[in-house]
Amino acid sequence: MEEIAIRRLKSEEMTESLRLSQFAFQYSLTPEQVEERLKYFKAEHVWGYFINGRLAAKMAVYPMRTWLNGKRVEMGGVASVATWPEYRRQGMVGKLLRRGLEAMRENGQLVSFLHPFSFSFYRKFGWELYIEYKTYTLETSKLPAFADPGGHMETTSDIALLNRIYEAYAVGYNGMLMRDEAWWRRNLFESKPGIAAVYYNGEGVPAGYVYYQVRNFEMTVHDMAFLDEQARKGLWRFLANHDSMMKSVVMRAPVDDPLPFMLDDPKIKQEIVPYFMARIVDVQALLQQYPFVPGAKRQLLLEINDAHAAWNDGVFAVQIDEAGKASVERLEKGKLSSEAAFAGGGETKRIACGIGTLSAMLMGYMRPARLHALGRLNGSTEDVAIWEASLPVRTTFLADYF
């Protein structure tokens, strides 16, 4: 009889975990690189599915933080999901994901992000697309010709300075990662060689940065952040000064970025790329921390279907105060006798959807009215309108990868 165990890896099992990753994702590491990775990656962040003591499948869940409507939220980053071929299509990954959700909830991680090999696969487990980004390719002849905004540029290796600018920029989007010094070094400076330069405005205040590389006559902008339009223009003037070294610029931007509108000739190459997926780990806990739009008191009912996290599968009574803070009670499905007491004799607005739809909605990627029109959100037009007015409008974006 097979002995099956789902548990966190031990330190001595991390080498086997890396061996599985190299096989599944088709890359090779030297012994020195293996040692370097073992310094960064901790065994307690990796869950393994073991059969008779052998690692058959595995999944990493990294403790991270993100921003949601300006609020910092704990997030579980799912990555390195892999199975040896002789064990595939036996439901192991699904079991790992469900155990991972339990662990994330225990750790207070309210949402989870992942980069999917297949959107349809992870949708079955409640993750949903939450971000698209734009890629630009601009020939040097089409670079913006902005007037000099004043200020100056300085190259730098000061991570603390770069991170201050980054956080002031990132908080304006839903879904950006909080970075620490190790993240800057490992995921930017070491993995993407380049030069960092900071824009200082006319008052000498740092207001933007760009991290870029020029190679084979092409400039790749790895990372850019700016706190106002003056800084945006200063950064682009700096990039344009490299025109003798390059033929084109390639970069990534938020999906609502207005750069083409600002160009003399907006006929540039643009591509919209579906990117990461998000999932709510704990509906009740997230709603209680969620910053709703302030206004009149609202009483709402939210029915959620979640086949992989029983604590989310139910009806939630949501009361939002004038400041936009919610108190939430979970009710059992089919047991809504307390609804009248909750509503206080007044009218209570009710909508229903799956956990993936709710994730896209609360992340800000899809609005309630659009989801209702698409048949993904059930409820009357009036009920949906209450939710539409209660959720802040904010673009989703993610400048990183994990």
TrEMBL record:
Highest taxon of the lineage: Bacteria
Recorded GO MF terms: aminoglycoside N-acetyltransferase activity
Keywords: Transferase
UniProt signal peptide: none
Pfam families cross-referenced by the UniProt entry: Acetyltransf_17, Acetyltransf_9, SCP2_2
Organism: Paenibacillus contaminans
GO biological process: aminoglycoside antibiotic catabolic process
Domain named N-acetyltransferase: residues: 4-144
Record protein name field: GNAT family N-acetyltransferase
Gene3D superfamilies with a match to the protein in the record: 3.40.630.30, SCP2 sterol-binding domain (3.30.1050.10)
